[in-house]
UniProtKB/TrEMBL annotation:
Keyword Transmembrane: yes
One Pfam family hit: Y_phosphatase3
Name this protein carries in UniProt: Uncharacterized protein LOC118412031 isoform X1
Gene: LOC118412031
Listed transmembrane segments: 116-136
UniProt keywords, alphabetically: Membrane, Transmembrane, Transmembrane helix
Keyword Zinc: no
Organism encoding this protein: Branchiostoma floridae (Florida lancelet)
A GO term for molecular function: phosphatase activity
Amino acid sequence: MDFESLPNFRTVVPGKLYRSSTVDNVTTNDVEKLSSLGIKTIVDLRSMEELNESSAPRLLDDIFQTVGVEVKDRKPQAPEIQFTVKDAASRQDKRHFFVAFYNRQFLTGTLQRRPWYQRVFAILTMILAFLLDTILRTNRKYLKKATVAIILTDKGILQWYKDMVDYSTGSMFAALSILTDPQNQPALVCCKHGKDRTAIVAALVLGILGRTKQDVIEDYHKSEEGTKSLYQMMYNDVCVRFGAQESYLWARKETMQRFLEYIDEKYVIHRLIFKPESTCTILQCKSHIFVFSIVR
């Protein structure tokens, strides 16, 4: 299905799960197209702060309840998920969840894995940025730039993906828990461009469902074509505004190939029959154990 205002849209699991860029700009015509797919749930991998920065029409807010998702880590047990309805809507059975991938846990993890001198430099930079924002009253302009400099590591897009799977584990657990609940399907997963955070979740879903690595790689690579209409905006947002490499805008096959190799090397996946209609999957590493239910 083609959307005029929803770039990078495609099917992940037919009739159950779709993926796209942000839904903030959806037009009236595309609202009707989404309705024809019967989508009950949107899992948005942005933070509420990212949402509030958007000046788009956000027509879906009139239909979908806005729900903030907070994840509390309880290792080695599964994380605790808390839901807070931010805005009511006309349909109580349709919900737009916000599960922030770039949270405190993520920032702490990316800092801790770096050498001590880089940690000190990053912390001092963030303190200076905070002081500048306070003095100049810039609505955290410099602090945001300093924070993004930590997120968009100088080691490139592959390390960024590794950081997400290592340090956004609680958010991934929450996203997968929502998406794989039959009551929430059909569902749509998205982020700002639908290329990176969305790609991580889609790759995990496809992998757990037994799709081949080549299927996962091909799905990821489709974002090269899917984000063409967004490329200039992406360049301004990521490269001009934050000084990141242009390679962060790409969705090359070799990136996903190496990312999947990293997951294979670091993580062990066990599949157990949980109940007749679903499969229970345990993704286990040295320091985290998570349980995902995937409906067949």
